[in-house]
Amino acid sequence: MEKSVSLFKFNNGVKDGLPIGLGYLSVSFAFGVKASILQIPLIITLLISMTNLTSAGQLAGLEIIATLGTFAEIILTQIIINSRYFLMSLTLSQKTDDSFSLKKRFICSAFITDEIFAVALSKPGKISVKYFLGLALLPYIGWASGTLLGAVAGSLLPEFIVNALGVALYAMFIAIIVPPATKERGVLFAVVLSAGISCALYFVPVFSALSSGFAIIITALVVSLITALIFPIKTEEEVLDA
Amino acid sequence: MPREIKMLLLVLAMALVTYVIRMLPLVFFRKKIKSRYVQSVLYYVPYAVLSAMTFPFIFYSTGNLYTALIGTAVALIASLTKSSLIVVAVLACLAVLISGFIL
Question: How many domains does chain A have?
Fold first, then answer.
């Protein structure tokens, strides 16, 4: 009896994970194309996706890996870009039921992404390990297989098509940041300021010696620290009060 | 160090850092971050990062500044209509492809 209930929960998770998996397929395809443009070996590209499962961090890392940057650079970049997972993991830790043993917490941690976190958190009550792993299954498969397809396509397709595909990943980033920017002034401020500082670091000769990894770290830190001062977000309690 | 070995080590370093950030709170802490300022900073980080990674690099993503500018414009307009990620990406790619034939 208990087994069938657990199984049901795993299946529930898989079902909820399907749309995330499909979305990841296309984003990671674009990532794979980008990696092949940067001439990263296929096996390395696939390994990045299978061990990281995150879009922004991987793209920043990709540039550093392609230019054989320093370890300090890649470590700092990932800490800044992925710091949001710290908060998500913290929030998720209040949402887990007793099936999350210590060992399973170590395993589940690897699959915390923006989308998986958002869906898990939207469920009423506590979630089980089986539901969480079911939820992570298709996104993980989608992320890995999309990367592989993109990297292969990038190396096989003619140049003019690969060039056109080169814009895909950035177009998706725009599609992520524009809708919330039209709704929240804080996000709009952060997006515009960030684009401005990033362009300045790139075009102004004094700063252009800065590697892309460090430029992103500095931009993200400065922009988030300033935006949080001017546009503090509503905390959960306030949202509940309202 | 051979190129592939260095790449492999960089990938492993990246994976390790990303994993530890995700793992620490779920395994060791069980408390919430109370500071409204810290919560706000973490809320804005992804938007700041994505914007900084997109601009100005999207302009050089197609090997031709003009087709890239057209692709960027199409992506921005398509995003305003709240199209899904894949639709925005496909439209931007098509815009680059078509303008590549014309320009």
Answer: 2
